[in-house]
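Lab meeting, item 3. Inverse folding demo.
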């Protein structure tokens, strides 16, 4: 059973920083792309940032220059460093990963979500 477990959310003032982590565990053969999405109240879930197995990245326009995604393949973990946070960044942040499980092939997995609140 593959699981994604997120950590690092919380309350931060505007202009502050947070670092989210997401660790994958279970019977993992390999991991392709990993990413972060977010969903604010009353809005659809949207892509924040994504990183391929080869390290190529893409970002939502709203976070470019402020957020940085990275991964540690040895730890099956993806991170997002969030700087210069704004109130509009407030949302539940979800980790996503395309994981190869032995006997099952590639499947997309989601974490349980972690709340990020930017407020003074």
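The presenter then showed the designed sequence:
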């Amino acid at each position: 059973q593959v699981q994604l477990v997120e950590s690092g959310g919380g309350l931060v003032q505007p202009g502050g920083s947070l670092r989210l982590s997401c660790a994958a565990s279970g019977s993992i053969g390999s991991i392709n792309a990993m990413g972060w999405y977010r969903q604010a109240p009353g809005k659809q879930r949207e892509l924040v940032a994504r990183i391929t197995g080869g390290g190529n990245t893409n970002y939502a326009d709203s976070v470019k220059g402020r957020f940085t995604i990275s991964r540690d393949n040895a730890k099956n973990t993806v991170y997002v460093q969030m700087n210069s946070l704004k109130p509009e960044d407030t949302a539940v942040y979800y980790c996503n990963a395309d994981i190869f499980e032995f006997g099952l092939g590639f499947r997309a997995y989601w974490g349980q979500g972690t709340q990020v609140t930017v407020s003074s």
